[in-house]
Amino acid sequence: MEGCIFCKIIKGEIPSTRIYEDEKVYAFADINPILEGHTLIIPKRHSENLWEIPEADLSAIHAASKKVAGAMKKGLGADGVACVQLNGKSVNQVVMHYHFHLIPHQPGGPDLPMTAWKLMPGDMDKIKANAEKISRAL
Ligand code: AMP
Ligand code: ZN
Known about the structure:
- The protein is α+β, with helices and mostly antiparallel strands.
- It has one domain (5-137): HIT-like (HIT family, subunit A, 2-Layer Sandwich).
- It is built from three helices and five strands.
- Strands 1-2-3-5-4 form a five-stranded antiparallel β-sheet, covered by helices on one side.
- It is globular.
- Adenosine monophosphate (AMP) binds at residues 5, 14, 16, 30-32, 40, 86, 92-95, 99.
- Adenosine monophosphate binds next to loops.
């Protein structure tokens, strides 16, 4: 898509540090790593978000994420990998080309703030009402 920086990365118009590639996906190093080894996996065909991406591309991204997460364990000695994916400006999606973050954690390394949220028991009536709304919309 015109003007999309990740489409430009796929075309080689913007440099990137390649980690993995197949027919449908491209994985490369995030240039603002949250932790060392932070990697992005993107579909080669432009889709903006989870609502738009075709299932075949989504499956390819998940298959690739399994490979890359394995390589993070083997190659970096990661003892955990956080997978994060944002949809919409309201949840801080900055680049509007679907991307799947893989963030490896090193033994003894710093915690990821986003994975250390505090558990607070919810209101079961609200939990059930929301579950029903989602379920009915499927
Ligand atoms: P978000 O849209 O909030 O999920 O995050 C976009 C991510 O893309 C951020 O982690 C950026 O550091 C990353 N990013 C933006 N431009 C580039 C680039 N040219 N090469 C690698 N990573 C990038
Ligand atoms: Zn794009």
